[in-house]
Amino acid sequence: MTTRKPLGSLSVSPLCLGGNVFGWSTDEAESFAVLDAYVAGGGNFIDTADAYSAWVPGNEGGESETVIGNWLAARGNRDDVVIATKVGALPGLKGLSAATIKKAVEGSLRRLRTDHIDLYYTHYDDESLEVGEFLTVLDDLVRAGKVREIAASNISAARLEEALSFSEREGLARYVALQPQYNLVSRDTYEGELAEVAARHDVGAVPYYGLASGFLTGKYRPGTDVDSVRSGKAAAHLATDRGVRVLTALDAVATAHGAEVATVALAWLAARPTVTAPIASARTTAQLPALLAVQDLRLTAEEQKLLDEASA
To answer: Fewer CB within 10 A of the end CB, N or C, for the chain?
Structure first.
């Protein structure tokens, strides 16, 4: 049985499965296979958003939620998994006004084929509003049983602090999780003030881009050509000194453990202060074992230091 970690009132596996590829680079049949294998491997925490994958020509958003909802209905396992989705970035329903959130949550519930969302993120902060405007609506959803816990993604340290203080002062539902961009080649996107606010208020970090769009799987090397929808983003890291240093350190640690490079990169992230569970997605079942192995890999203090220094 995989160890579970607390996230507010929720109990989640140490690896969160990213659902952004479902209905985009992974069709429904393969998505079902990935979801089945993830759960069979001890995972229970699935991340999506209403906006996934509106960026694909011909898609309008909601495709990932629809695939996950169809899978939940087919497997009859809704109570066995923790479903996280997001509000505020779907074309036509952007921002965090009360009307937008109320309409968006109904769409997500319908596509997910469920009566509740376990973890509901504000996808992007809406700085045109006072935090109280959307926190009050989110609290209403929690009280109505439509949402169990709330969370924030893409928010500044100052606004996160403000939101947490408002919830505490007014006795409203509070953010229990934070989804920042964070990985071995992108540390300043989380470390520092934002991480300090999370630590001070016991907010669990669930980092996205945990593998830097695939760069930290180790498949991108000088002179290689990788067939992936994200290869441009990932390959850019090869042009930096830090990218090369990080790969070298990852190779050394992976060799010592007989582990995949991706597993080591996620294990570093999982061991960081405040991190509850990194997010990683798999387009195929073949990519899953390296991700799931993070649940069992423990880095030594020396290995963590080596990776810290390489990624500084």
So the answer is: N
